[in-house]
Each structure stands twice: as C-alpha cells, then as structure tokens.
Amino acid sequence: MKTAILNQLAEAVVEGDEDLAEELAQKALDEGVDPYEAIVDGLAKGMVIVSDKYEKGEAFVPHLLIASGAMYAGMDILTPHMNVESSGKRAIGVIGTIEGDVHDIGKNLVKTMMSASGFDMIDLGHDVPVEKFVEVAKEKKADLVSMSALMTTTMTNMEKVIEMLQEEGTRDSLIVMIGGAPVSPEFAEQIGADSTHPDSMVATEWAKEAVSKLAPAEERWSEEKISLGKVKYREILSKKKVKGKTDIGLETAKQIIADFESVAVKTKEEMTHIDRTLAAMADKKVDRLPVYPLACGSLRKFADVNYREYATDINAFVESAYLGSKYLDTDMFVGLIDLSATSADFGCKIKYPEDDTPSSEGHLEAYEQIEVPEVKEGTRAYELIMASKAATEKLNKELNTPFVGFHEGPLLTLTQLMGADRVLMDMKTHPDVVLEAVQKCTDYICQVSELFFAENACNALCIDNLWSNNVIMSEEDYWKFDGKFVYEQHIPIFKKYDQPYIIHNCADAVHFDTQIKKFGTQLYSYAYYPKLRSKGSQNYADLIPKYGDVCCMMGEINPVQFMDNTSEGIQKVKDDTKDLLEGVLPVLKENGLQSKYVMSTGCETPPGGTLTTVKAMVDVVKELGPDLQKQIFG
C-alpha cells in the first residue's frame, strides 16, 4: 500500500494535478505513511522526473511550474505532520530575484528543486530590496541566501547584498549562491559569492553539500561570531566605500570628454555612421564593421543626469543619446530605456529608481482587467516615441548617426503586466485566456510601432521579443502564444512603412528559425552564454552560416565585463573585441558575405558602469577594423 501511494504521489506531480496531490497526501497520512517519506520518495521523486525531462528537452518551463504547484499542494498537507527527529532539521534558504529585476522563472525553479530536496525555502519574490535579503537571513538564521538576475543592469545589486552581509558581520554565517543566464563563475568570484550553477538541479546538489558542511546555526549566528565577522570585513569594506564614493560613470565620462576635446584633429573615417550601418545590413562594402556596445542608460553620464531623468525627461534622454554618441563615436544609438513602457500603459505600476532601470512594481490581479489603451499624450509609449523622435532628429543632423527605436513585443508586455510564471502556467491551464490577453497586447504594440513610423521617430525600430527560448517553451508554444501574433499582425506594419524588422533577444537558447527565417528579420541582436552552449546558446560561428543570407547578426561580448574599470578589465574587453572581430570576418567571407555583422554586446551594459570599457570596445573596432577588412576582403 505504501509503495503504491508513493508512486501515485510522484505521478500526481508529474501530471501537475494539485487536487490529486492533496488527496493522496491526506491518504498517506491516513494510512500511516511517514510524512517525510511521502515528501522525499513521493512528491520530490515526481519533481525529479519532471526536471530530468526538462534537462533532456522533453519538458519546458510551464510543465515544471505546474508540477511544482502539485508538489507544493501535497507538501502543504504533509509538512505540518512531519516528525523533526525522524526527518532531521531542514536547512533554511532565503531566495529571491534581485532588486530591479522582475524575472523570476529561474528563481522559482531553483526554489522548487531545493524544496523538494529538503530545504525550507523562504521566497522573497522578485524585485527584492537588497536590505530584505539581509534582514530575513538574520531573522531566520538562514543557512543559505540565493539571488537571481536575468538583466545585466541589475546584477550589481547582488554585490550590495554581500557587502551588507559583511557589514553586519553575518557573511560567514551562511552560503551565498547566485544565478541567472548572464551570471558567470568569474562574476560570482568577483563579488564574493560562494557559487553559481547553470541549472536548478546542479545548484540544488551543490547547495545540499555546501550546507551540510556548515557549523550548527547557533554557533554561526552567535553574537561572538557576528562581532568577529564585523572586524574581519571592516578593512575590506572601508576600501570599497572610499572607492564607491566616486561615481565611476560620471568620472569616466568627464575623462573621455576631456580627451576628446584635447585632440585638435579627429580621425576622419571613409564612411559616415549611417552609411556604414546601412551598408552592413545590406552586406555591401564597408570600411570596417559597425560597432555599438548596447550602452544605452550608461551614456546618461555624459549629460550628468540620473536614470529617472533619462527615462522620463525628453531633454535628458536626447542629450544623453547625443553626447554619448558624439564622445564615443558609435555607429548607432539604441533607445532602450526599460522593459516596462508598454505594460505601464495597461495599468502596471512602475517604479523609477534614481539610478537604476525602471521596473514593474506590481502586476494586475486578473486578465479581465486588461483593456487596450490608446497611444496618446500622457501615455508612457507616447512619451517614448516623442523622445525618440527628438533624438533621431538631433543624431541624424549633427552626427550622421542612426537612431534605433526600441519597445517590447506582445508576450513580453503581457509577462511584465501579469508576471512571467503566471502567464507561462496559464498557457497550459487556461490557454484561451492567455491568447485573448496576448491579442490585446498585440493591438497596443501595433499602435506603438505605427506611431513610431508615422512620426518618423526613428531610423529603424527594434522589438524585444524575449520569450523565444527553447528551454522556456517549445517552438510550437512560442508560435502559438507570440510568434503568430508578431508574424500576422506586427510585421505587416514594418512592411507597410518599408522598414526592416529588428529583434533584440538576450535569451540563452533562442528559436532562431522562427524569429529570423519565418519573420524575415533583417537585424538580430543576440546574447551568447558559453556555459549554456549545450542548451542551445549559439555564437557567430553558428549563426552566420545559418542565417547570414537573411539577417545581419549583432552581438555578443559579455556586458558584465564592462563593469570592471581596472587595467585588466579594460584589457579583457579589448581582447574579447579583437577576438570577435578576427573571428567574425573570416566566417563572413567563408559564407559569401563581407559586412553583415554589427560588433556589439549580448545585452545592455549595466547603467552604473564605467564608460572606459565601452570606449575600449569602440576604439578596438575603429583601430583594427579597416586593416582587417582590407586584408580579408581586399
């Protein structure tokens, strides 16, 4: 009887049946099955089965989320009846997505797997203030803190949490684990985290082993240990604070301006920025490949404005785009402000930090609340379009630099509006409701793009179609819940105005066939994560042979590296840029192409970062590009 119940509990989780999981959990109690055994050999076993299918590409994120719902439903019945002596004390983990970042899918998967493995996980949610991690960890005498981020612009907040733990004297009282697609082992080591891992199962196994080696909580969290911790980190923190008083973005901007103005004669290039960019997209002859690190918000430092002003004040935005493009001499500027402009107009509450990217602060409670707004004065999208128009006029007239407008696609808008994990689960449980909501978002997205073109508010328009990802959802589901809407309703607007369709997608394993070949995309901005290559992340050597005949690719330098203003950090950016340039050009030639690539970063450089690294990338392309172009193409 016990074996049958345990197998049934596992199957309920695999099927994602919450009601059945609750019923079987109660049956296990009634039949005298040990609650801990029912969780470990029943519910958790089912979660492992689903996770294994996920790792093999046989299941996707919605399946994991639904299965986790069934697991938690059963655990809610069983946990209150657990015998602590027989099950052992559960390790306590505090988990959340870092402040400024609303992406919580990866965080939820890690939480689920760790809960299934015996951790008592305290989920702080997304956009978690740095202080909250420290407060809750101390209150609960936690064994582990786990932080995640998808946006490179928010990753620096992870270091702030670690610094606060050091300041409080509690850093050595627990393990710190970080994660997210852009997070690398090098970044983890740099900020003082204990570890990072590419997937939830590996992270869970590592965390179990690491926590098992900790001293008892009473010893680690004693006043004596905390006092010693404060002393231990005092000198380290004092050095950081002195360094941290300097606004590195502003200081490096001033230095770049001074250097620029001191040079009486500027180097004259053969082509203008606009001509070079257009030629590359058309695979025509160029003097060198175009270059534009996705340094959007960080360029506000040239205008000495904070991020709130950059995001909400037209004059501040235009001046940031103009001065940044002028002093760095980039081949374009992308008007990326944040990923919440369209969701804000649907009624999603947005917070505007002084010096960080705006983000959704809350979601709508019900899909029924979604009503399609009109793009008009006072809406966030209208303000974005007018700011883009002013910037386009100034950059085109004074610098011959193209301006690329930017806004979110339909499914990304919906996930910002309702929450990604909820939408992804509802795709399986309430698909018609989600499809109706995506249609409403599409209606608005089409309005926004139409007005961009009607107002001549950009030279080209880039759309963030994030959710094309072969780990998050199948290609069939992506087509059903986003691709079909884009292809049938959104792309025709670009064709109407004879505009190239451009995509930015910093996901790690994209459905490239759909987003490039099916859509007919002409410029694709992508990220490359070497640690996720086995999952489907691809670089220029993979992409140019497959899509170079259709599309100009744009990527892929790691944007996190641009935070490091040391001589070693700057040299690293230079070396990686040189390697990319020397790697791309021969691959272009091998595939019968000569210029169809834009040197860039895989995602936006952090807005609080240094600008010397951005300049380093641009300078390397300008210095080496012309000679390499001639050597390889004549």
TrEMBL record:
Q: Which SUPFAM superfamilies match?
A: Cobalamin (vitamin B12)-binding domain, Methionine synthase domain, UROD/MetE-like
Q: Which residues form the B12-binding N-terminal domain?
A: 1-90
Record-level GO BP terms:
homocysteine metabolic process; methanogenesis; methylation; porphyrin-containing compound biosynthetic process; tetrahydrofolate metabolic process
Q: Which UniProt keywords apply?
A: Cobalt, Metal-binding, Methanogenesis, Methyltransferase, Repeat, Transferase
Gene Ontology CC terms, in alphabetical order: cytosol
SMART domains from the xrefs? Answer: B12-binding_2 (SM01018)
- Return the Pfam families for the record: B12-binding, B12-binding_2, URO-D
In the record, what terms sit under GO molecular function?
cobalamin binding; cobalt ion binding; methionine synthase activity; uroporphyrinogen decarboxylase activity
Q: Does the keyword Nucleotide-binding apply?
A: no
Q: Where is the B12-binding domain?
A: 90-225
Q: Which family does it belong to?
A: Belongs to the methylamine corrinoid protein family.
Q: What is this protein called?
A: Methyltransferase
User: Which organism encodes this protein?
Assistant: Methanolobus vulcani
